[in-house]
Design brief:
Belongs to the DAMOX/DASOX family. InterPro entries: DAO, FAD-dep_OxRdtase. Its cofactor is FAD. The chain has about 325 residues and is of the alpha+beta class. The chain has one domain: D-Amino Acid Oxidase, Chain A, domain 2. The chain contains four helices and twelve strands. Strands 1, 2, 3, 5, 6, 7, 8, 9 and 10 form a nine-stranded mixed sheet that branches. Helix 1 crosses helix 4. The C terminus is likely disordered.
Length: about 325
């Protein structure tokens, strides 16, 4: 639940978080749908903890040779999302960090997760959602946990990394993608993300300033299969040094000593081989599971699009059952 920040397997609080499209154009519908809602919230619902922020994406040609790069979609030479943002433009050579070859800039959003997650919880409560805590050995146990006192017709499986061990799912395609970050007091001129580093393929450079005084996230790492939840001080030092090297103004000209650390963090992204799983599965007794997990680094980016897809699966099923003579009320 929001506030349970002592569990790195609950990755949402540890994310930056932002909206920088990562998917190829043929698979962009979920991101397109999500952007419409995040943009609306940033413009008209300040209590949600989302604000507009310029972002610069910078790439090196040599990084793009790795076909399996984590954020390659963001660094495409001719990205489909250039038409999504009104102020999209390519960066001039003079604006690039040392060793980087090309880039672009546009206005997107950054999310203060410590505000946004409780706000989402409040929106659910406002709409009549009932909450309870329970530890399940199998997803099928959720069928009898409905507050209505009757067995549930639908179970939404959004257990993230937990889907690797949850009975009735046991998806061995799930793995942690360890991310280490540093939260600092320093402000930044713009959100920035870079295609690669000189410190190895699992280490990254990005920075983003959270809304409503939430500090600035410096990152990071992407360590697939690493379950270690303890921040590594050597990695933290490299993260800070990379940020200072690529954007010296963050440290106000004081080098690494100019970074004012609030805390260190580790989160385990719910990576899934083959990508997100959104599909419907019958478990008998008029009960269906709709799976929605495996979002990796992409959870906030596709959140509303994925939720809409889940809703469409449920509504489509209800219509089909109604047409087959099964009462919708039963579902």
């Amino acid at each position: 639940m929001p506030g349970d920040n002592n569990e790195p397997g609950y990755a949402s609080p540890w994310a930056g978080a932002n909206f920088i499209p990562l998917q190829p154009e043929h698979n962009s519908l979920r991101e397109r749908r999500t952007w419409l809602e995040l943009k609306r919230l940033a413009a008209s619902v300040p209590e949600a903890g989302i604000h507009f922020q310029k972002v610069q994406l910078q790439r090196r040609h040599k990084d793009m040779k790795d076909a399996h790069g984590n954020f390659h979609g963001a660094f495409a030479e001719n990205p489909w999302f250039k038409d999504l943002f009104d102020d999209f433009r390519k960066l001039d050579v003079s604006e690039l960090a040392p060793e980087y070859d090309a880039g672009c800039q546009f206005t997107t959003v950054c999310i203060n997760t410590s505000i946004y997650l409780p706000w989402l919880l409040g929106q659910c409560a406002r709409n009549g959602v009932k909450f309870q805590r329970a530890r399940l050995e199998s997803v099928e146990e959720a069928r009898n946990l409905s507050h209505t006192g009757t067995p549930a017709g639908f179970i939404i499986n959004a257990t993230g990394l937990g889907s690797r061990s949850l009975g009735g799912v046991v998806d061995t395609k799930m793995l942690p993608a360890r991310g280490q970050t540093v939260l600092v007091q320093n402000t930044i001129p713009a959100m920035m993300m870079f295609s690669g580093t000189n410190d190895g393929p699992v280490e990254e450079i990005y920075m983003m300033q959270r809304a409503v005084g939430g500090g600035t996230i410096l990152g990071g790492t992407y360590e697939l299969g690493n379950w270690n939840t303890t921040p590594d001080p050597n990695i933290a030092t490299r993260i800070i040094q990379r940020v200072v090297d690529t954007c010296p103004e963050v440290a106000e000209g004081k080098g690494i000593k100019g970074i004012r650390v609030i805390r260190h963090g580790v989160g385990l992204r719910p990576y899934r081989e083959g990508g997100v799983r959104i599909e419907k599965e019958s478990i008998g007794q008029d009960t269906w599971i709709v799976h929605n997990y495996g979002h990796d680094s992409w959870g906030y980016l596709g959140s509303y699009g994925c939720a809409q897809e889940v809703l469409e699966l449920i509504e489509g099923h209800s219509v089909n059952q109604s047409q087959s003579g099964v009462s919708k009320a039963r579902l």
